[in-house]
Amino acid sequence: MRAYHLEAFGTIEGIVLRDHGGPRPVPAGPTGIVVRVRAASLNKRDLLILRERYPLSAAPGVVPLSDGAGEVVAVGEAVTRVAVGDRVSCAYFPRWRDGRITPDLVDQPGCTLDGMLSEYALLDEEWAVRLPQHLTWEEAATLPCAAVTAWNALTGGEGGAPLPGRSVLTLGTGPVALFAVQFAKLLGCRVVSTTSSEEKADRLKALGSDAVVNYVSTPEWGGPPPGV
């Protein structure tokens, strides 16, 4: 099995490919599963970890990347939540089941736990999240970090999800903002987005933004209307 490992911080050269040899790995315990990784994606947090600017310290030699998607190829004898052949990703906070998060539950793949930049990922069945069949591997590999953050931002408040017809403001064209545009439109909301270029404005409109404000040409876009 081949896997990349973060062996030195600072530059991409610190991420080294290792060939562990031997046959396919086996599940790590009775509730463990083995996932053949089909696609993985890069988030800004992965670059922050590489540059030692992330709130959590990376484990020595950790396998990078929180986000990936693949198929279950082996399961432990006590596994009941998934089966061989299932399409899954790994939860961003795999040890956090419910309630308010606490410091002992903040472990993350690609940082304190081995991530998805590997031929095979060793997970616990409780860490795995099934994927919709209509998504490609590449699409599914972008969900755990940015997409779940955007969904929680829209629906996780005390009032729940915004009602159809409400206005939602998204800032910029980062991954979280782009997911928020699409989720807000699915919820029936009017979406106003900000960006710095006309090219990005066209892309936002194609994704569903109803109005786009260029914050470079209109630096006071967030203030009161003229004369107020």
Shape from CA axes?
globular
> Structural class, from secondary structure content?
alpha+beta
Helix content: 10-25%
- Report the portion of residues in β strands: 15-25%
Work out the radius of gyration. 20 Å
Termini gap: 65 Å
Counted beta strands: 10
Q: Number of helical runs?
A: 5
Q: How confident overall, as mean pLDDT?
A: 95
**What's the arrangement of strands in the largest beta sheet?**
6-3-4-5-7
Largest sheet: 5 strands, antiparallel
Oligomerization status of the protein chains: single chain
Are there runs of 5+ residues with pLDDT below 50, and where?
Answer: none
Element pattern in H and E: EEEHEEEEHHEHEHE
Can you lay out the helices and strands and say which pair or pack?
Blueprint: E1 2-6, E2 15-19, E3 32-41, H1 44-50, E4 67-75, E5 87-90, E6 120-124, E7 128-130, H2 137-140, H3 143-155, E8 167-171, H4 175-186, E9 190-195, H5 198-207, E10 211-214
Parallel strand pairs: 8-9, 9-10
Antiparallel strand pairs: 1-2, 3-4, 3-6, 4-5, 5-7
Question: Nutshell version of this structure?
Answer:
This protein has helices at 44-50, 137-140, 143-155, 175-186, 198-207, and strands at 2-6, 15-19, 32-41, 67-75, 87-90, 120-124, 128-130, 167-171, 190-195, 211-214. The chain has 228 residues and is α+β, with helices and mostly antiparallel strands. A hairpin with an 8-residue loop joins strand 1 and strand 2.
